[in-house]
User: What shape does this take?
Amino acid sequence: MSDSPYTFDGMTSGGDPWYYSDIVKEHFFNPKNFLKTDEEASFKFDGLGRVGSPACGDEMVMWIQVDPKEDKIVDCRWRTFGCGSAIASTSMLSEMVKENNGIKIDDALKIKPQDIMTRLGGLPDRKIHCSVLGDKALRAAINDYFHKSGQHERGMVEGGKIIDPILKITDHDIEQAVLDGAQTLEQVQAKLKVGVGSPEAITEIEELIRFYKEKYFGL
Amino acid sequence: MTKQIYLDHAATTPLDKQVLKKMMPFLQNDFGNPSALYNLGRRSLKAIAEAKKIIADILACTPNEIIFTGGGTESDNLAVLGAARANRAAGNHIITTKIEHHAVLHACKQLEKEGFVITCLKPDKDGVITVEQIITAIKPDTILVTIMYANNEIGTIEPIAEIGKTLLKYNTTERQGKQRVLFHTDACQAAGTLDLNINRLHTDLLTLNGSKIYGPKGVGVLYKKKDVKIQPLIVGGGQEFGLRAGTENVAGIIGLAEALRLAQNDKEKENTRLIDLRGYFWRGLEKKIERIKLNGHAEKRLPNNLNVSILDVEGEAMLLYLDEKGIQAATGSACTSQSLEPSHVLLSIGLPYEMAHGSLRFTMGHSTTQADIDYVLKVLPDIVEKLREISPARLGMCESKKHPKYKQ
Assistant: This one.
């Protein structure tokens, strides 16, 4: 099993039921840096990113303030529709962005869900999928800033590499499926139907499943 | 410790003191195996016979029609898998609904793999299935109809007696000399509140369990009409007419019978009390929380069940805040399920995903008082207000005014 104290069925390695760490609870019950109602009109932002939707179960919006000279994000606000870990992970991400007087944009782009989880003191495996939107929202906000400030060459395409040409499924989709708990080709197919119409893509799909399992769960 | 207010009685109930008292002797002194011939064993056997008599009296059937199992899920499995497999020669078509408990739905899925054909009826927006839907779905090779008595999530009560009567008529006229269409109902949620008289319900199979009626967990009943053939799932020592092997859970059986007796005895009074309390609860919520909707039928619902959707907030987040305030409830949001899909029941009654994610289920019980409800009514609106401030949903509504760049 991985270094993570949690196993796949949601129990800790000690056999206890899953629970949230004290850090998760603190960020959930006392979220930091979310956009308060009275800030809606006044918060000045240079980039805005929005991912997900309430229909998916999670939606996040991130506003960032950038110091162009330093190429740093110096302040941010967020809003999240989602469960406990979704709210806590966005709150933690906002702290990671703001600490040490802000974060270099290049460093912000490197933040991965795993980094947020580590700072939260771990999340139960079945809740990991709830924490993957925060970094996407942040990247979307940075992209928006690049676009608005005319730095088009720095803009990123979030589309990913198309693995299944028929269903237009990308490596990001497979990453998401693994984060959602799929561990085998069959389970990924149950979520995405990937490779059903394109059997030639199966080998690459299996490789990606192995890659992401190792990346997130150390399996 | 914060005051604890338990509002998840549809999940399970605490054991009634009187029930525990009845069970105690069978956990220690009267521990004999009911299959044994000596007096100690015969005492256990006699106790089981008495328990069957108590339950048979409530169901208006004979004690030989009562099979004890390891719980509601097992009874459902035994009814659905057992009846289908035993009657396969007569046909391979089964009718059920999209809002059944997984104990029935997954059993049907299993049967599909074995070559059976399943028709899954879609309920109306309140979760009600009609007799007409069932009659329309019946085919010459239909062998089983399985419809729950009351839904565990939204509390909607299905017209079981009406369906039973109609099927009886259908069988009498259309299935003369042939295998009749069998009728099973899962009555786990209904056991404490609704009529269980088989002469009025006309079911061939009926599931009950202990853990929703202040009885013990891990014990269930399958009522099986005398002439109905089913195939056992668990084989071995030949207990329960060879339909459910394994040494009987004597204490559990005694507890279940006592719990059912108490529940059925007190049901009119308790139902009235809970219906009043539920009305008070809902009116309070409606007044204090904007953008809230009742899920399930307004009247045809279990007296203790209140299921609502609150827009712009997610269920698990609300549950965690409620738990912090000492209130235990449930949600149909994906975040509390293993599947990452919101409740199949809420989706089946046509709720959009975001409303299913924002659902809360409160199920009251014996211990619930008006003071408890007042406390929830005091605490919940603040929780919703706080989570709505964190949520971007409301922001989305006024995006054009404040955030011209919002749409991207």
In short: DSSP finds 14 helices and twelve strands in chain B. The first strand of chain B starts at residue 5 and ends at 6. The CA atoms of residues 19 and 176 of chain B lie 45 Å apart. The interface with chain A takes residues 312-317, 320-321, 324, 333-336, 338, 340, 342, 352-354, 357-358, 389-393, 395, 402-403, 405-406, 408 of chain B (CB under 8 Å).
